[in-house]
Amino acid sequence: MAVEYGASALGLVSHMPSGPGVIPEDRIAEIAATVPPAIGSFLLTSKQDAHEIIAQHHRCRTNCIQVCDRLISGSYRDLKDALPGVSIVQVIHVADDASVEEALSVAPEVDALLLDSGNQSLAVKELGGTGRTHNWSLSRVIREQAGVPVFLAGGLYAGNAKQAIVEVEPFGLDICSGVRTEGKLDRAKLGAFFEAVKSAA
User: Fold this and answer.
1) pTM: predicted TM-score of the whole model, two decimal places
2) pLDDT digits (tens, 9 = 90+) for 170-183
3) Range of the structural domain that residue 186 is part of
4) Nearest alpha carbon to residue 127 among 39, 2, 7, 14
5) How many domains does the chain have?
6) In this structure, what CATH number is given to the domain that contains residue 26?
7) CA distances (Å), 58 to each of 23, 89, 91, 128, 173, in order?
């Protein structure tokens, strides 16, 4: 359905501490194997160990990995060496100026950044799917200085997609809760969202 409406990438959400859309790993592998070649398939992982991420990718076989938390063991180089041809996208949860510093320090190590509205400091971490926007002026600064493609996420829906594109000028928009009803993709919301994106273009 998402591809039919114009999505250029699909986010396949593995285990997360919170948020919607989690898919079992065997289903992620099944979906990734059927995604058309021109469409990105993103494994969203909450794992923080590079070698665990590598093992998870071997099970799921997507063409991109979206690291939704900070790496605390291993390195991006470990990921790239073990998974040639797989793009590595690091999520930055934008909250303040420290988020800008984090993004700019990570950017040279990855293929792209994804700027979201989670909170890694909570007892139950929020690593995406919050339905909240963040300070887009900070995202704009990151986008201008990062030197790699930047995706924008967090609280996006048909009503603010055009504004997000104008204010941040991201490489792409990442959307989750804004096109769901009762946890499932909603055709009407998808259609309205892509119409808003086209109107901004």
Assistant:
1) 0.94
2) 999 999 989 999 98
3) 2-200
4) 14
5) 1
6) 3.20.20.70
7) 16, 17, 21, 23, 27
